[in-house]
Amino acid sequence: MSRNPFAGADTPELTALSSDFLETTGANLLTRWDAHQDFWDARLAAGLDPYMRSSAERIGPETVALTRGHERIAGVNFASQDYLSLASHPHVCAAATEAVARWGVHSAGSLALQGGSVPLTLLEDRLAELLCCDEVTVFPTGWAAGYGTVKALVRENDHIVLDIVSHACLQEAAANSTKNIHRVPNCSHAAVASRLARIRERAPDAGILVITEGLFSMDSTVPDLRAMQEICHAYEATLMVDVAHDFGAMCDGGLGFIGDQGLLGEIDIVMGSFSKTFASNGGFVATNARGIKLAFRSFSNPLTFSNALSPVQAATVNAALDIIRSREGAERRRRLMHNIIRLREGLAARAFNVLGQPSAIVPVWLGPVAQARRMTRTALSMGALVNLVEHPAVSRQNSRWRLQVMADHTPDQVDRVIAIAVAAREATGTDLPTDADQPATPLGE
Question: Is 393 exposed, middle or buried (0-12, 13-18, 19+ CB in 10 A)?
Fold first, then answer.
């Protein structure tokens, strides 16, 4: 007899977490998920399931989305990763159309065999020149680039020093590579130095990979990358920087915070994604290490055993890169930053706790999950398409909106999402957390 997943719970659709309903025992691997399904069905029925929405129109500053229950929601869109508004740009769409006519729609092979294409080779060469690196490898997804890099480089006796809020692909790759994982507080180069000193004392011959990001998406924080690289060199460690959220969209020339901090060509490994700014799936890894490109083709399974990025996707990214490096790209970044500042300042002026520093991601701290779910339900009903982030992506008391800003948002659209946020807070009677409520970032091994 299956148990009632909500027995003894007052309002599980408000307060329970999906992880509360994970079954790890029982002979039937499939029915273990029944309680989990019941939980999500209850959330959907209560209007408290904001996830797995689908776009019913082109991605843009305003759009129509379909909920998991197929309900249409129209509104101002702060839930899409299209920072420079290139997903429907005429130049990008024309390049994709031309690529279909010339090369077809599929790579039909991995890079280890015959899956490369002229647009993909061109893309790798252009990225290498832009990042001042000798070698660039393009992966079929950003996840594959992050996971595949860590898994290819690290052996079981090596060590990984990992920022505690690094992307999930990096966390999972670390867990599947070695038991020697050392998690450090967000953006703390002092903690990295301390940990590296201890590792080198105990394991003088071990390889060490230090992983950080150019811009952390959950808190919109930026590390001191030069300090991090210098520390790594001092302890013969290798630094890997994930630039998924800043490369292309942020700083002069779209070079992200590596460029802003004067580190082009100096970081050991630069890994990024095309999915935030370049209007396509895909990811890349750039380095000056001479053996890495062929190593990835042979020993990075997400690359070796996956079809390569298609010619259409590679041509799309190349077209996006044309714009990013042009005067138009500079103007789009200027508009994007104007929208970012307007949104952050408007929310802060109305007593919202906006985390981090200005970037295309504006994290708005909502606190406990119950009030975050109520506010999200209300905001969606009022015409603001927002993304709720809750546990396990963040801790239980740190639920937040992760508002994603576009270059093509108008001042009126920015002001509308601010007004809806205020109205949602008032309608739900929510007391938002303050800086004094922020728990310290945990430090684990």
Answer: middle
